[in-house]
Amino acid sequence: MNFASQKYLKLDPKLFKAFMAVAEYGSYATAAKKSAQSPSVVSDHMIKIRETLGHDVVIKVSDTYKLTSAGKMLQQYIRRIMDVTAEFHDGLDQGQESMEGMVRYAMPPSCLQSPHFPMLLQRRLDFPGIALQVELCPTEAVTQSVIDDRFDFGFVTERIEHPSLRYIPFCEEEYVLVSSSRSTLDELQPDTVMDHRFINYPGMDVCFDLWARHFMTEAKTLTARSLYHTGDINDIVGAIKMVIGGLGISVFPRHCVEAYLENGELVEYDKGDLPPMMNTIYITTRRDISQPRRVDTVIQWFRDMHPEFQEE
User: Model pTM?
Assistant: First the structure.
């Protein structure tokens, strides 16, 4: 299917607006509200797209509209048109004010607790035309969203090799095991870890597995799957509160719990003579997709935060 052919170019930009809203929200009613159109107009636009292309672009699954293979192709085609248009305007005026459009990226929830996000927002103030779409999800979901081209790039705590992906070192973060009780951590040994109560949250498995391989080398088969959970929550801030409340122990990036360690609400596992457990955080993008200038610019803003990781 070639969307660049003459008959496909007859699609009105208003149809594109309706389609992209349906693709994002999976609902005609929500798409109508978000795109400032009536539900009947959105429905008419979707019918017109179906008639023009000769292919179904969405299919209803339960109460949600999902993209068909033709719909995914149309979505990518429209994004390319939007990117080319933005690049054209950039070329007319290379000034800061000319760069505009959406930048989509995903990251683990722990990244929101770092200083990087406020630093990004500060830089964006000089480029009011740039909009941000940010999704918080575990590394595995970040990787898949970039592979599926739902996002322009993502931050991941581990490399998952895939022929479509490239990885750019961004920074390092330290992982620490913390508790509200020093005595609890004093009792922690490789052969007693599974007897302790842990707090689970999205991404904790990656943090714990890296921590355990570093500090509990004798327990070669120990992983996050081995642990006994007395608390499970889908929010890292809530998980920290659970640990502070004495419900269990857990492993977090140090930057997420530093303030609580300093004020004494939390204590960390005594690593003895061992060095801290440091892990490289990567920015991942698609190899086979040329990014618009605005996306490359935002990625560079992040990389400028850690010049020590800049490639030679």
Answer: 0.69
Domains of the chain in sequence order: 8-75 (1.10.10.10), 99-170+286-309 (3.40.190.10), 173-279 (3.40.190.10)
> To 10 degrees, what angle do helices 13-25 and 39-53 make?
110
The structure tokens 């970040």 sit at 142
Per-residue confidence in pLDDT tens, the chain, 312 aa: 555 444 544 556 778 888 888 988 899 988 888 777 888 888 888 888 888 888 899 999 888 899 999 888 888 888 877 776 666 655 555 544 457 889 999 999 999 889 999 999 999 998 988 999 999 998 889 999 999 888 999 999 989 888 989 999 999 999 999 999 999 998 888 888 889 999 999 999 999 999 999 999 887 788 999 899 999 999 999 999 999 999 999 999 999 999 999 999 999 998 888 899 999 999 999 988 888 889 999 999 999 999 887 654
- Helix ranges (H only) for the chain are 13-25, 28-34, 39-53, 69-92, 116-124, 139-147, 182-186, 204-215, 236-244, 254-262, 293-304
Q: CA–CA separation, 295 vs 146, rounded Å?
A: 13
What angle do helix axes 69-92 and 293-304 make, rounded to 10 degrees? 80
CB neighbour list of residue 96: distance below 8 Å, 6 or more residues apart = 126, 127
Q: Count the residues in the chain.
A: 312
